[in-house]
Amino acid sequence: MRSLRGIAHFLILFMFAANVAATDDLLPTSTTGQVVKHTYYVLSYSEVHEQPEWVYYKLTASFVNGPVSRTDDFRPDPKVSTGSAQLYDYKGSGYDRGHLCPAGDMKLSRQAMSETFYMSNMSPQEPSFNRGIWKNLEATVRNWAVREGEIYVVTGGILKSTKGTIGTNRVAVPKYYYKVVYDPTGDKKMIALILPNEKGTKPLQSYVVSVDEVEALTGIDFFPELPDNLENRLESSSNTALWSFKKYSSSYSSKSSSGAVQCKGIAKSTGQRCRIKTTNPNGYCRYHQGQAPGASSSAATSTQSSGRCQAITKAGTQCKRKASPGSNYCWQHQR
């Protein structure tokens, strides 16, 4: 029985991999010459800007309805031959590490989820933008995937227009972001949006443009392998009436995160609010119980001693050792 299950699992993975490979026929053109293929998405990396000019992937209901939760395992991308941006480039910059292929689009498996946390998939976004209108757009795109059955998504910053750079590696901060979506089902259609990297106050429909306009601003040819007559017709259109602008919410995600809130604690290593989700009644995760109102000093000490070292290594990642008793740091990072 075990061997039969193994064979079935292998066949499922094989068929899925073949399906992913088949989507390569619709890749946009690369102006950088560095196309990086991960299992579930493809990107064209711009070394000059230390981020992708585009990220491309196929999206279906199975991806957005999957059982996997966020991993938050941010790390450099080993497939970028010139070296991707690093965690320390974003530290203290005031910008979010904005996903281009969203974690919420890759809930199919642990691998799919984990791949979205490569630094090659990040771009510096204003917090009010990333957590506001951009998040709303991502949820709307998920709704399109479920309604239509399958869609193809291309997204990125418009790298010809930037606000400057951040970090040692001089990661460019785009002034604008775009998203292009192709629906190959039924009466085929396309839609594109361009949004400024700032707090959005208008409805998403007001940011809709034609794909032709995005191509003019980026120099990228989207879906060049489509028949010319179809490509020309779809890319010149900007008909919002063909698309629903309702946000998607998964019954699974609402059930699995029921009662969970972001920890109220402050991480001493960054001075910022802890990102861990907790169901503890006082609103503090197990690492920050010592910061809860009325917590005893012994509670603070036990929290510190049982936690992970809070130090940030030279590579920009959190140390993996356990903190020494009575401290927030391991033996190597005592300070």
Protein topology:
Elements lengths: L1 H21 L12 E3 L4 E5 L4 E10 H4 L22 H4 L5 E4 L10 H6 L6 E4 L1 H4 L2 H16 L1 E8 L4 E5 L4 E4 L1 E8 L5 E8 L11 E2 L1 H8 L9 H8 L15 H6 L4 E2 L14 E2 L18 H10 L29
Antiparallel strand pairs: 1-2, 2-3, 3-6, 4-5, 6-9, 7-8, 9-10, 10-11, 12-13
Describe the protein in words.
With 335 residues, this protein is of the alpha+beta class. It folds into 2 domains: 2-252, Extracellular Endonuclease, Chain A; 259-335, no CATH class. Helix content is 26%, strand content 19%. The protein is built from 10 helices and 13 strands. The chain has helices at 2-22, 61-64, 87-90, 110-115, 127-130, 133-148, 211-218, 228-235, 251-256, 297-306; strands at 35-37, 42-46, 51-60, 96-99, 122-125, 150-157, 162-166, 171-174, 176-183, 189-196, 208-209, 261-262, 277-278. A hairpin with a 4-residue loop joins strand 7 and strand 8 (171-174). Mean pLDDT is 84; it is low at 6-22, 251-258 and 296-306.
- Judged by helices, strands and strand pairing, the structural class is alpha+beta
The CATH topology of the largest domain corresponds to Extracellular Endonuclease, Chain A
> Which series of helices and strands comes N to C?
HEEEHHEHEHHEEEEEEHHHEEH
Low-confidence stretches: 6-22, 251-258, 296-306
Number of distinct helices: 10
Estimate percent helicity.
Answer: 25-40%
Count every beta strand, where a strand is a DSSP E run of 2 or more residues. Answer: 13
CATH architectural designation of the largest domain: 3-Layer(aba) Sandwich
What's the end-to-end separation, in Å?
A: 55 Å
Question: What proportion of the residues form beta strands (DSSP E)?
Answer: 15-25%
Based on CA atoms alone, the radius of gyration comes out at: 22 Å
Major sheet size, sense and barrel closure: 7 strands, antiparallel
Q: Tell me the overall shape.
A: globular
- Under CATH, the homologous superfamily of the largest domain reads Extracellular Endonuclease, subunit A
The number of distinct structural domains comes to: 2
Mean pLDDT across every amino acid position = 84
